[in-house]
């Protein structure tokens, strides 16, 4: 364990890292198991794997990239939240709009 | 605070009342590199958006459940997650200045990353041989663009890792080396985060369709 530069930060950082590692492994195995063994119906599985992916992304960002409200005086968090909003708008908006364009305007079924 | 950034010019990129945040890995480089990672995340966001829009445009070609081998993807996911964990193991050694153990963990990370890339290239080769190359349908074009961009990031991360292994051998763990290793660790964890989106949105959802 590193205690040379900042004992308190290093200590909580390592503990968070261990917890993050365990959570990441569980949150990776579970969705693969759900899909490969097909234990639940399709809709439930889709909702669950997306929920677990979102949780795992947060776990990785907090435990591995050490993002918190204090990092860089909050600017890291601000940049992350801004990026998350843009990503949700880009991905969600594109799929939403193009889905409706497809269903409303392309009767040839391509 | 910790003196970790004493070789830097005293530019302050954060609001002044928070000056005492000085944890080991801060300084202007950390924030600057973080902003870069966020802009890279936006590149991937647009690739994910493109994939999402055309993910069912098969053009009469193969559908995901026919061509995706989830066992292979599970192996690849395990390799990349393991490499993220081994990089995390290198960090306390880096912060304490123990160059030997840090380089050993970096080598482990690099080997796992190279194995990931090898499996991915095998998968791409297999798909193209099966007639499921990027020119077959919009779905496959978007698939190769998204997964290929991630793979290219892993490839350049590996080059970066080799460079750092050589540089730490030549110079030891001097302050600029610590900063570079810190940036690469952020980059590597970031790539694993993108992969969470890839295996969920592309592979698992594709097989469920």
From TrEMBL, chain A:
What is one term from the GO cellular component aspect held by the record? plasma membrane
Q: How does it sit in the membrane?
A: Multi-pass membrane protein
Name the residues that span the membrane. 16-34, 46-65, 77-99
Where in or outside the cell it occurs: the entry states: Cell membrane
**InterPro entries under this entry?**
Cyt_c_oxidase_su4_prok, Cyt_o_ubiqinol_oxidase_su4, Cytochrome_c_oxidase_bac_sub4
Q: Does the keyword Transmembrane helix apply?
A: yes
**What keywords does the record list, in alphabetical order?**
Cell membrane, Electron transport, Membrane, Oxidoreductase, Transmembrane, Transmembrane helix, Transport
Say yes or no: keyword Repeat present: no
| Any one GO biological process | aerobic electron transport chain
GO MF assignments: cytochrome bo3 ubiquinol oxidase activity; proton transmembrane transporter activity
Pfam families, A to Z: COX4_pro
Q: How does it assemble?
A: Heterooctamer of two A chains, two B chains, two C chains and two D chains.
Q: What does the UniProt record say this protein does?
A: Cytochrome bo(3) ubiquinol terminal oxidase is the component of the aerobic respiratory chain of E.coli that predominates when cells are grown at high aeration. Has proton pump activity across the membrane in addition to electron transfer, pumping 2 protons/electron.
The record's family statement is:
Belongs to the cytochrome c oxidase bacterial subunit 4 family.
| Entries under PANTHER family matching the protein | CYTOCHROME BO(3) UBIQUINOL OXIDASE SUBUNIT 4
- The entry's protein name is Cytochrome bo(3) ubiquinol oxidase subunit 4
Source organism per UniProt: Novosphingobium fluoreni
Automatic annotation (TrEMBL), chain B:
Entry's localization field: Cell membrane
Provide the membrane topology annotation: Multi-pass membrane protein
Instruction: Specify whether Oxidoreductase is a keyword of the entry.
Output: yes
Question: Keywords on this record?
Answer: Cell membrane, Electron transport, Membrane, Oxidoreductase, Transmembrane, Transmembrane helix, Transport
- For this chain's UniProt record, which GO biological process terms are given? aerobic electron transport chain
Which Gene3D superfamilies does the UniProt entry name for this protein?
Cytochrome c oxidase, subunit III, four-helix bundle
GO molecular function terms listed in the Swiss-Prot or TrEMBL record? cytochrome bo3 ubiquinol oxidase activity; cytochrome-c oxidase activity
Q: Which residues cross the membrane?
A: 33-53, 73-92, 104-122, 142-166, 187-208
Q: Name one GO cellular component term.
A: plasma membrane
Please tell me where this protein is predominantly located: membrane
Where the record annotates domain Heme-copper oxidase subunit III family profile, the positions are 1-207
The free-text function statement in the UniProt record for this protein reads:
Cytochrome bo(3) ubiquinol terminal oxidase is the component of the aerobic respiratory chain of E.coli that predominates when cells are grown at high aeration. Has proton pump activity across the membrane in addition to electron transfer, pumping 2 protons/electron.
Q: Which family does it belong to?
A: Belongs to the cytochrome c oxidase subunit 3 family.
Q: How does it assemble?
A: Heterooctamer of two A chains, two B chains, two C chains and two D chains.
The protein's name is Cytochrome bo(3) ubiquinol oxidase subunit 3
Species assigned in the record = Novosphingobium fluoreni
């Amino acid at each position: 364990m590193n205690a040379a530069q900042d004992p308190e930060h290093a200590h909580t950082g390592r503990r968070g890292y261990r917890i993050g590692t365990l959570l990441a492994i569980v949150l990776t195995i579970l969705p693969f198991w759900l899909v490969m063994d097909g234990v639940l119906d399709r809709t439930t599985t889709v909702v669950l794997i997306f929920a677990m992916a979102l949780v795992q992304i947060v776990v990785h960002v907090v435990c591995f990239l050490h993002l918190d409200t204090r990092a860089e005086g909050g600017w890291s968090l601000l940049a992350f939240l801004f990026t998350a909003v843009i990503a949700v708008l880009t991905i969600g908006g594109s799929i939403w709009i193009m889905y409706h364009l497809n269903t409303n305007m392309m009767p040839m079924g391509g | 605070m910790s003196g970790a950034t004493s070789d830097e010019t005293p530019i302050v990129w954060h609001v002044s009342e928070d000056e005492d945040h000085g944890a080991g890995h801060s300084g202007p480089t950390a924030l600057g590199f973080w902003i870069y990672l966020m802009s890279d995340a936006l590149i991937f966001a647009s690739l994910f958006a493109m994939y999402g829009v055309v993910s069912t445009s098969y053009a009469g070609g193969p559908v995901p459940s026919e061509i995706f081998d989830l066992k292979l993807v599970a192996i690849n996911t395990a390799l990349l997650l393991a490499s993220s964990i081994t990089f995390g193991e290198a960090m306390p050694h880096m912060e304490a200045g123990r160059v030997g153990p840090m380089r050993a963990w970096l080598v482990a990370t690099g080997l796992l990353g190279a194995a990931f890339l090898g499996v991915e290239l095998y998968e791409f080769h297999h798909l193209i041989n099966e007639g499921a190359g990027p020119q077959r349908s919009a779905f496959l074009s978007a698939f190769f663009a998204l997964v290929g961009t991630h793979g290219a990031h892993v490839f350049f991360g590996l080059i970066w890792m080799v460079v750092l292994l050589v540089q730490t051998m030549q110079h030891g763990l001097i302050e600029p080396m610590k900063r570079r290793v810190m940036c690469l660790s952020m980059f590597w964890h970031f790539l694993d985060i993108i992969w969470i989106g890839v295996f969920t949105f592309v592979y698992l959802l594709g097989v469920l369709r």
